[in-house]
Amino acid sequence: xxxxxxxxxxxxxxxxxxxxxxxxxxxxxxxxxxxxxxxxxxxxxxxxxxxxxxxxxxxxxxxxxxxxxxxxxxxxxxxxxxxxxxxxxxxxxxxxxxxxxxxxxxxxxxxxxxxxxxxxxxxxxxxxxxxxxxxxxxxxxxxxxxxxxxxxxxxxxxxxxxxxxxxxxxxxxxxxxxxxxxxxxxxxxxxxxxxxxxxxxxxxxxxxxxxxxxxxxxxxxxxxxxxxxxxxxxxxxxxxxxxxxxxxxxxxxxxxxxxxxxxxxxxxxxxxxxxxxxxxxxxxxxxxxxxxxxxxxxxxxx
Length: 302
Known about the structure:
By secondary structure, the chain is mostly beta strands. It has a single domain, classed as 6 Propeller (Neuraminidase), CATH 2.120.10. It contains 1 helix and 23 strands. The strands form 6 sheets. The protein has a 5-stranded mixed beta sheet with strand order 8-9-10-11-15, with no helix packed on it. Strands 3-23-22-21 form a 4-stranded antiparallel beta sheet, with no helix packed on it. The chain has a 4-stranded antiparallel beta sheet with strand order 4-5-6-7, with no helix packed on it. The radius of gyration is 18 Å and the shape is globular. 43% of the residues are buried. The N terminus is likely disordered.
C-alpha cells in the first residue's frame, strides 16, 4: 500500500439556467454552497504492469474486447453478464453487446452520425443514452445524447443540449471545462461529468431530462477532482458513486446521490492498467472497468 494522499476539498456551486425546454432539478438534490474540509484517503493500489494491473489490490483482469475499436464507455444491458460498449472518436456508430470476457455477442448499428461518442448509460426500463458530447477543443455547438431502445435501434430520439456557462467557442485555455466523457442515468435525468482540459482540477456536474428535446443543461455542482474524468458509475443501492479517470478512481459515498455529491472522495490508484475509459457496477461491491485498449477488469469493493 502507498502512503496517504491528500484529496482536494470538494466545492459545490449551483447555477440557474434558462432553456428552450427548462430542466427540473432532481427531487431532493441539495447543492452545497461552501467547500467541505480537506480529507485524506488511503490509496488502495500498487504499481502494476502496463496494461495488466496484475499487482493492484482488489483488481482482476477478466477479459479482452478484441473486436471493439477503442472502447469508450460501458453500460449494463439488463441481461446478467453482458454489457454495451462503443468505439471512440472516429469510429462507426455501432453499439456492441459483449459478454463478461469481452466477446462480441451482437453489433447494433445506430442510424445517426457519430462525431465523438464518449459515454453510454442505461435507464431502468431498457433505454440507452449514447453521449455524442466529446468536446476536446471545447468548441462544439452540436452536442447531443441519442436515446434508443437497442431492441428497436431504428427509432432514435435526440436530447440536444448546451451549457449555461459557456459563451465562447472555444473559451480561454484555462476555462476549457466543457468536454464530457462521463454520464449516468438517475431518476429521470442524465448526469454529465466534465473532463477539465483547462486546469485539470474540477469536474462540473450537469443534468438534462431523459426525454427528447432541446435543453440548456443545469449546472448542479462542481467537484474538486485532481484528474480528468472519463466515466461515471452509481452502485445499484445508490450509495456509492465512482468517477473513473486516467488510471485512477475517485470514490464518493453517502446515503443518496444528494449526499454523495457533497462528500469528499477517496482516490484509488489503477497505475499501469492502461487508458481507463468505461465503468459500471454489476453489484454494490463489483465494478467493471474497460480500457481503450480493450481490456476488461473487475474492482471489488470491501
